[in-house]
Each structure stands twice: as C-alpha cells, then as structure tokens.
Structure to design on (482 residues):
C-alpha cells in the first residue's frame, strides 16, 4: 500500500509506504488537478515501486487503488485519451442517483472544456485531470513493462492509468492484461481502445484491486499450461484422434 | 479418475477408480448407446463418487471428463433435452473439417430421428445417446446437489450431463455453477437453457475439467468475500461516500 496523496496525515503502519506528494489534488474544473512536477513525481514513484517488487523476485504485478471520486477523474482521462463522449465514459461509481450522475457528466464536460487536453502530452493530461493514484499507476505499469513483467490491470481507474502509460510508451500495452471488465462504462471504452480482452467479466464495480486479483489465477494457469503441460508429442500420444 | 467405460482394459493405477460398466457404448444410430440398466448404473456410480468426496470433507465438487467423440453424444443429448436444432448444437470438437462436420450433424439428426427422445424420460434419453461419462456426471451433479455442495461444471459434456440431471431433479440446477463457456456452440445453448452464467469465457475447447478448474478460484473468492470480508458497518466506516 502506497500513500501518494491521501488528504490526511497517516500514522506509520507496517506495509504502508509513505510517498505522499500532497494532501489530495486540486479541483480540475478550476485548474489543473496537479502540477506537471507532481504528475512526474507520481509517475516516478509508481515506476520505483514496480522496480522494487520485481527486484524482490515478483514475476507478475497486479494493480489496485483506493481513491475518493476517482471514477470522475478516470472518466475525464478516458475522454481526453480516447476521444470518447463524456456521457459514454462516465458511470455511476459507488451508485449515485440520476441527478448526481447528470452533474458528474457535466463536471467532466466542464473539465474537458477548460483544459482542452492534448493526448500527445500525456503528462499534461495526467496533471490536468488525474488523481495521484492514476499517475502512480501509470508509472507502475511503465515500470513493469520496462522490466518485461506482466501487469494485471484492475478496473476503470487502472484502465485510465494504462491509457496514460500507453500514450507515453505504446509498447507498454504488450505487458498489460485486463484482469476484468468492470461495470463502469468507461472501462469498456478503455479496453476496446487498448485492444485488451478482459479475463473476467462479472459486472464487478468495487475496484481496489479486486478484479485484478480474481484474474491472477487465470494468468498463472496460462503460464503453467505453456510451461508445464505435456504436448501430444512429448507425451507420446500416437494419434490425436 | 473413474473408469466408467473405457474401451480397453486398464491396469490398476493409484487414483484410478475401476467402475467400468462396459467397454464403450454402442452406436446410437443403430440402437440405444446403452441399456437403461447401464444408464442407471452410471448415474449411481457418479452419485456415489460425489457422496464419497463430500464425506471426505470436500466442500465443492468440480467436474472433468475424458471421452472419445463425446461432443457428438453431447450434441444429441442437448438437442433431445432443449429442442435445439442439430446444426445449432453441434460443433467441431477437436477441430474436424467441413465434410466431417456435416457428417457429424447428419449423425446427430439420424440418432434423433431413430430414438424420438422424450425429455420427460431422462434416463431413456441418456441411454439412447449418452456416453457412460454423461450418465456418471449427471449422477455426480445430483449427488452434489442432494448434499448441498456446489458443483462447478466444465464444458459442453458436463453441460449435457447437467441437462439430464436437471431433467431428473429440477432443483439440482441451484447447485450448479458454469465454470466457463466453451467454444462448442452447444454449450451456449445449454447454459442459456439452464439459466447459468459462465464465470469464465475464454474460447476454451479442451474439456477434461480445464475450464471448471480455472473457475474454482473465483468460486472460492466469492465464498470468502461473503464470509470473511468486513462490511462498512462491521469495519466502522462512518459514511460510505
């Protein structure tokens, strides 16, 4: 667990890495959510976490994230990177009512209008709309991809981060596995844009790594099938029929 | 591993339960594949295996099967129980060519025409078309359901067996989880008829329990989420927003 920007002071806890960049991001309808320097700092933190996990012997990385209102920021990032319509990329998150949902779409539209994001400047897009978790996850994905380690992505927040990572380094998509397809509509848009097929599709909307963790045994099974299972030839099966 | 009807004499092997009913079934285009007594014997063997596994402490059963040409028998069973058209329920199995595929559909049609199966007589349908593995799996499903233990079904062969089990005892469907949806078209027909949603849908066609085993961690995770994960109330989260 990495604190990259919780809007509170956290006491030291075993397993919690303190990497706080700031206490929360700014309101993206009023200005950029973070500075470019903050976005870069979060990217580097994510890449360093990936590097340290791989150095410790891990052969597969799995994303998880916690954040408040981060499906809104994700929707804005998805629109900025894919060109999707805000009404198509914005979902109901924790289960908001129709009026709040309409306001959420309007907030995304307002942010896009204010920043006129340029997908050719991924750090600028991250700075405009991202949570620190998005930027750190993008760095984490890039770190895993650079080290040739597969990264199993969780839901819509990880997907939005993957769009930033792939905008920075298109080859990074080859390291990404879509753990699942969440119920958030922006996630389907994202997976389709990235050309990723979800391993699990169970209408989950919790986030926090749950969908990616569910898919991990499938990735492990696939690796073991390729490595450990006999072929007809190696097992001496005379005739496959 | 249970030998219910391999068409060869098998030497004793640790883990292989010898329960052979006959050396293979008969040609269903010429007569019933097995006698009613043989079908009943296989049903009982399957139920006994389920009973023994539950008595040994297993809390979830998973189906697997091996058989030669059993996608053809499965297609006939699926048509008999669901009323599906043979062209819709018959697939390419291990990857047969177009001419063999056309012949396979024709064989299923011929079998259905010969036996005029009555889905209200499930044992008769099993006897007409089934492999011993279909009847044993049907008994295995019924055994698990009777003991209130979930049964994770593999692909199209297990699906055809589940149709027989549910025809015998409709409530048994509540014990069934569709591990995956295989590439065999008859499997989609079957799952739709049973009202089961596959946990994994990755275009697999191997069978032999592989799809069910892939889904098992998902079932285990679901059970643990229901039993072990704190709720907002139990964790003392003041406000879910």
């Amino acid at each position: 667990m990495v604190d990259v920007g919780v809007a509170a002071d956290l006491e030291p806890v075993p397993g919690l890495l303190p990497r706080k960049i700031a206490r929360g991001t700014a309101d993206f309808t009023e200005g950029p959510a973070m500075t470019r320097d903050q976005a870069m700092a979060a990217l580097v933190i994510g890449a360093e976490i990936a590097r340290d996990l791989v150095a410790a012997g891990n052969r597969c990385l799995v994303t998880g994230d916690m954040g408040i209102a981060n499906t809104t920021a994700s929707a804005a990032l998805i629109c900025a990177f894919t060109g999707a319509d805000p009404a198509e990329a914005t979902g109901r998150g924790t289960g908001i009512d129709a009026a709040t949902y309409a306001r959420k779409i309007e907030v995304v539209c307002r942010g896009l209008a204010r920043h006129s994001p340029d997908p050719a400047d991924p750090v600028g897009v991250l700075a405009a709309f991202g949570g620190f978790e998005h930027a750190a996850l993008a760095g984490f994905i890039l770190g895993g991809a650079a080290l040739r380690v597969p990264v199993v992505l969780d839901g819509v927040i990880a997907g939005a981060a993957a769009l930033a990572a792939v905008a920075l380094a298109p080859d990074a998509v080859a390291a990404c596995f879509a753990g699942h397809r969440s119920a958030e509509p922006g996630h389907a848009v994202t997976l389709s844009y990235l050309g990723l097929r979800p391993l699990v599709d169970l209408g989950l909307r919790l986030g926090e790594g749950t969908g990616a963790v569910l898919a991990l045994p499938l990735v492990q099974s696939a690796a073991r099938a390729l490595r450990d299972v006999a072929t007809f030839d190696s097992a001496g099966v005379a005739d496959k029929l």
Remarks:
- Chain A touches chain B at residues 94, 199-202, 213-214, 217-218, 221, 240-241 (CB under 8 Å).
- The longest helix of chain A spans residues 36-55.
